[in-house]
Amino acid sequence: MNTFTTSWGDLGLTRYPEDPRDQLRAWDAADEYLLRHLGELAERAGPAAIGGTVVVLGDRWGALTTALAGHGPAQITDSYLTQQATRANLARNRPAARLAGVRLLTTQDAPPDRVDVLLVRVPKSLALLEDQLQRLAPRLHAQTLVVGTGMVTEIHTSTLKLFERIIGPTRTSLAVKKARLIFTTPDPALLASAAPIPGADPDSDPGSDPAAGLSWPRRYELPPDIGVMSGRPVTNHAGIFCADRLDIGTRFFLQHLPERRGPVRVVDLGCGNGVVGTAVAVANPEARVVFTDESFQAVASAEATFRANTGPGAKAEFLVGDGLADIERASADLVLNNPPFHTHRALTDSTSWRMFTGARAALRPGGELWVVGNRHLGYHTRLRRLFGNCEAVAGNPKFVVLRAVKRR
């Protein structure tokens, strides 16, 4: 745990899940810059400068939400890990935060009816930023304080154009410790033409209808050379990796999936848009497929993809969580995984290792983990160490499909 000094006190913050060996902090210079700016603003104009309904969009590990807990902010995130980190950091530093009205919302939830202060931690995905600004814009007003933050490498001309196109005139600050702030002045004319908030009408599904002002979710048909999923539709909510086409790693995996028959339990681990698990369900209608991901956008995409390609009676589980933490031990026959090698911009193999160890715990004796990955990542070494075995099922110059069996 590291101590983060802010205008609202010293905070002991950690990432999630907590790992005493992890030296990565739960905040960075962009968080520091934004909170310092808000503290100075409050000193000049008084606490009312950060009054009304405060929304924190894209908080990485809850540093912003925890610091501003006294203002009762609503955090909006696509990340289950962020949400859990925020809960832990609030409990550690702000035990009375619940009384202050802190709300932890997901990108799939309807945002607050009115937003008086919007704080945006620029996400890695420009699409996710676009989607969330479009959904929040109808709740802003001319006096809403809008401030974004990010590292210099995260803020591009395209980032600023999004703020300007959806909300209003935008400028940036000077760089401090390689971080910048974004200042946007809401334009009443833009806000008046903003899209209605999805979710306000439970029977409405604006999809990607340009007339509704929304760009997401997007749908496309798969190419004709990937077996049972050839030509089938896939749905992607904003922020999903390779949202406008099938990525080459998944394409290769789809061409080499194991064939199973009967009522086997299959887990699509890190499911993304769910195309891998859906392929299993289409090929074997008796399979019981579990789709799990730490992204709320991903699980929503997986469910939409599954529903569009299976019959009305088809059943599956859709879980947002930390890998396989919520799957019963020794309950799965097959785990399929295309693991990421980064988390919140940090390049690391810790996520894949936790996925592999979770898969081993979730598999029954004789169950199998199938993994696709870039050759250079060397997953076979870790799988052999963990399972005692690992074989290459298929490979090309870039990717390899690996199979590990739980012997006991």
Furnish the topology, listing elements before pairings.
Elements: E1 2-6, E2 9-13, H1 29-45, E3 54-57, H2 63-67, E4 74-77, H3 80-93, H4 97-100, E5 103-106, E6 117-121, H5 126-136, E7 145-151, H6 157-166, E8 170-172, E9 179-184, H7 188-192, E10 218-221, E11 233-236, H8 248-254, E12 265-269, H9 275-283, E13 288-293, H10 296-309, E14 316-320, E15 332-337, E16 342-343, E17 346-347, H11 350-362, E18 363-374, H12 379-387, E19 391-395, E20 399-405
Parallel strand pairs: 3-4, 3-6, 4-5, 6-7, 12-13, 12-15, 13-14, 15-18
Antiparallel strand pairs: 1-2, 7-9, 8-9, 10-11, 16-17, 18-20, 19-20
Helix pairs in contact: 5-6, 9-10, 11-12
Note down, in words, how this protein is organized.
With 408 residues, this protein is α/β, with parallel strands linked by helices. The chain has 2 domains: 2-201, Rossmann fold (3-Layer(aba) Sandwich); 218-405, Vaccinia Virus protein VP39 (Rossmann fold, 3-Layer(aba) Sandwich), CATH 3.40.50. It contains 12 helices and 20 strands. Helix 5 runs parallel beside helix 6, helix 9 runs parallel beside helix 10 (296-309) and helix 11 (350-362) runs parallel beside helix 12 (379-387). The chain is globular, with a radius of gyration of 22 Å.
